[in-house]
Specification:
By secondary structure, this protein is α/β, with parallel strands linked by helices. The protein is built from six helices and eight strands. It has a single domain, classed as Vaccinia Virus protein VP39 (Rossmann fold, 3-Layer(aba) Sandwich). The strands form two sheets. Strands 2-1-5-6-8-7 form a six-stranded mixed beta sheet, sandwiched between helices. A two-stranded parallel sheet has the order 3-4. Strand 5, helix 4 and strand 6 form a beta-alpha-beta unit. The protein starts with 10 loop residues before the first helix and ends with a strand.
């Protein structure tokens, strides 16, 4: 299969798209505004936007070099907005919509410095509607669940590539969420030892 020159391609994004979409279709209402953080190649934005036609999908990425690929994948989909440059470490996400119904972030927490997790949680708390959800996807380390050998190998590889990267303990991620006023609402097990986690506002 060949792709347009601007389109980057991730085999993993292609594989994990269908099970994630099925989970999103179960978790989300029929309509809303979605902000995607760390859209990467743009494959998820295009696939989920097509599968959730009632949702206006706003992709974004911290790397300007990623935006042309995202735009190329999303071209022609009426509910996909042009990609934004957005860094979760910015004190204010000035380029993002003031309020969204959901935020989706895949495979960033473990492929970014730990400070990005706090930035994600704090930004989500600022921009989510009162009943909105932050949806994070990827592998995690859980204290009461044996870690799959493939995830242990993946964690070691990430840390060799960059000492600031690595799989995160779900308890540590939950602590960052709690500090921002969010709590875990749902934990869904997906193929290849990945989780889709739904975070929402903690009761006051």
């Amino acid at each position: 299969m060949t792709f347009a020159p601007d389109r980057r391609h991730s085999p993993a994004a292609e594989r994990n798209g269908p099970p994630i979409l099925a989970a999103l279709q179960r978790l989300l209402p029929p309509t809303g505004v979605m902000l995607e953080i760390a859209s990467g190649t743009g494959q998820h934005a295009a696939f989920f936007g097509a599968g959730l036609p009632g949702w206006a999908w706003q992709p974004s990425d911290a790397e300007a070099a990623a935006l042309p690929s995202i735009a190329a994948w999303c071209n022609g989909l009426p509910n996909l907005r042009p990609p934004l440059l957005l860094d979760v470490l910015d004190a204010a996400w000035s380029s993002a919509p003031d309020q969204v119904d959901a935020i989706y972030c895949a495979n960033m927490i473990h492929i970014a410095p730990w400070a990005c997790t706090a930035g994600l949680m704090q930004g989500a708390a600022r921009h989510l509607a009162p009943r909105g959800l932050l949806l994070t996807y990827g592998p995690y380390l859980e204290d009461d669940v044996a870690t799959a050998p493939s995830n242990l190998a993946f964690d070691a590889d990430l840390r060799r590539r960059d000492a600031a990267w690595g799989l995160r303990r779900l308890a540590d991620v939950a602590a960052q969420a709690a500090a921002a006023g969010l709590q875990l609402r749902e934990r869904l097990s997906l193929p290849a030892n990945n989780l889709l986690l739904a975070w929402g506002s903690a009761p006051r």
